[in-house]
């Protein structure tokens, strides 16, 4: 009698293993995330030439860091997010919605690095060589050091990498790769996890930097087990509406740099173009003389970005007022409206409120609290705030305006773009004594800020 094939259940979200199906995953508490896959019975062990050159431990004081361990991609926004370039032997995961520009960005990286003479291998499991050539023709000239490979068998890919020894490898995408030692279908939890493990051995053993493209699910997370993000060194996400012209590259995880940096790109026919001044780009099209609109400043890593906050407050015709927040936390907006009602005395409980960050960008820094409050008050009282005014500060439950980090950089960015006055927390004033050419309006509470715009001083 044939022996029954043993199977096991995996959570698609976090990789939790179970011998039986469960409705809710005990690890990540996700519902209906278990899938059944056969257990690998093969006892083969993969070995890569050159990986076991040194098995002895080494003292920390004896480890040397070379200055040329980072490679500049030639794309400033990407280098900023990566923390100064590509680290040798690192593994980077690039995720995003379909059509957002993941393959386009990586092909542009190939173009810049090939011009520097770097040996690059681009492995595609979704497109043919002709399709890649058509896309590359729109971008410009490429160097002769770029090699293309259309293959999904990981054993063949590993053989080519060992033979060619490229400096950079791009896998597009990890969901199309399959390992013959794993008996499940490509894109399954087991295949994605095992394929990433093999690629990680190649990256660390041979000192090759590897980019892998990951598909995302409907909720925006990378498809496959959550352990995939823990295995790689850097996780980059492409954000933005695919129908809009701009794209935001955000570092979610980075072992070699900050996770707060973002890169801003604009999608054009020839590919992604860097946006060197995101603040000016985000403020384009701001209406003149409209109530409910104010400019706020948020920090993304070391970069200050000015954004336009819009609010529309009107009396509700129903028993339960409607509240909507786009680009910021919905619960935070409700909290700030409660602070306005309690500390300023405005009756907002019977009003619909719609808050939006123009341009489709998403910000969660508490420094935009004061801007949200002033935009709501401006719309409710129909007060027009000057186009030359910006505001930043965190708002507490007692109505106080608390300090924020890097206030000097925010004020200097506003001054550079031609703003004339800044509403900011009073506790930040000692760090701004040497700045001239812009009017500083310190406030201690939300009531002080509201009185400032009521008097028409801004």
Structure description:
The protein is of the alpha/beta class and 458 residues long. Helices cover 26% and strands 26% of the residues. It has eleven helices and 23 strands. The strands form five sheets. Strands 8-7-9-10-6-11-12-13-14 form a nine-stranded mixed β-sheet. A seven-stranded mixed β-sheet has the order 17-18-16-15-19-22-23. Strands 2-1-3 form a three-stranded antiparallel β-sheet, with no helix packed on it. Strand 9 (168-172), helix 5 and strand 10 (209-214) form a beta-alpha-beta unit. Helix 4 (154-164) packs parallel to helix 5, helix 8 packs across helix 9 (369-381) and helix 9 (369-381) crosses helix 11. The protein starts with 6 loop residues before the first strand and ends with a helix.
Integer count of domains: 3
Tell me the CATH superfamily of the largest domain: P-loop containing nucleotide triphosphate hydrolases
* Average pLDDT for all residues: 87
Q: In terms of per-residue confidence, which ranges show pLDDT below 50 for 5 or more consecutive residues?
A: 42-52
Assigned CATH class of the largest domain:
Alpha Beta
Instruction: Fill in the CATH topology of the largest domain.
Output: Rossmann fold
Q: Trace the largest sheet across and list its strands.
A: 8-7-9-10-6-11-12-13-14
Query: Cα distance, first to last residue?
Result: 86 Å
Structural class: alpha/beta
CATH architecture title of the largest domain = 3-Layer(aba) Sandwich
Helix content: 25-40%
């Amino acid at each position: 009698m044939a022996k029954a094939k043993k199977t096991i259940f995996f959570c698609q979200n976090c990789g939790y293993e179970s011998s039986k199906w469960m409705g809710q995953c005990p690890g990540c508490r996700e519902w209906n995330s278990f899938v059944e896959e056969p257990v690998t019975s093969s006892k083969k062990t993969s070995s890569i030439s050159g990986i076991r050159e040194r098995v002895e431990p080494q003292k920390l004081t004896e480890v040397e860091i070379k200055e040329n361990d980072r490679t500049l991609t030639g794309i400033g926004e990407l280098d900023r997010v990566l923390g100064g370039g590509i680290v040798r032997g690192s593994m980077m995961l690039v995720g995003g919605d379909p059509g957002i520009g993941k393959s386009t960005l990586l092909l542009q990286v190939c173009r810049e690095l090939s011009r520097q003479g770097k040996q690059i291998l681009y492995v595609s499991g979704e497109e043919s060589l002709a399709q890649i050539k058509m896309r590359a023709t729109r971008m410009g000239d490429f160097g002769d050091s770029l090699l293309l490979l259309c293959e999904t068998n990981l054993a063949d890919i590993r053989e080519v990498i060992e033979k060619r020894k490229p400096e950079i490898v791009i896998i597009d995408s990890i969901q199309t790769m399959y390992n013959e030692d794993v008996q499940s279908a490509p894109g399954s939890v087991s295949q994605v996890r095992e394929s990433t493990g093999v690629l990680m051995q190649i990256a660390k053993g041979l000192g090759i930097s590897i980019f892998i493209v990951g598909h995302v699910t409907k909720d925006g997370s990378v498809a496959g087990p959550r352990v995939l993000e823990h295995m790689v060194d850097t996780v980059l996400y492409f954000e933005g509406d695919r129908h809009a012209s701009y794209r935001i590259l955000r570092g979610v995880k980075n072992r070699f740099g900050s996770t707060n940096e973002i890169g801003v790109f604009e999608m054009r026919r020839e590919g992604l173009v860097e946006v060197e001044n995101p603040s000016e780009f985000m403020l384009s099209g701001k209406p003149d003389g409209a109530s409910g609109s104010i400019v706020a400043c948020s920090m993304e890593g070391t970069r200050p970005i000015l954004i336009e906050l819009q609010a529309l407050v009107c009396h509700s015709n129903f028993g339960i007022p409607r509240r909507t927040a786009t680009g910021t936390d919905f619960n935070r907006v409700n909290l700030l409206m409660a602070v306005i009602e309690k500390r300023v005395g405005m009756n907002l409980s019977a009003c619909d409120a719609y808050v939006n960050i123009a341009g489709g960008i998403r910000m969660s820094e508490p420094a935009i609290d004061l801007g949200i409050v002033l935009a709501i008050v401006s719309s409710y009282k129909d007060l027009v705030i000057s186009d030359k005014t910006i505001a930043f500060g965190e708002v507490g439950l007692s109505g106080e305006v608390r300090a924020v980090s890097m206030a000097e950089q925010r004020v200097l960015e506003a001054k550079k773009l031609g703003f004339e006055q800044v509403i900011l927390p009073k506790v930040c004033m000692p760090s701004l004594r040497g700045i001239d050419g812009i009017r500083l309006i310190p406030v201690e509470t939300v009531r002080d800020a509201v009185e400032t715009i009521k008097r028409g001083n801004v």
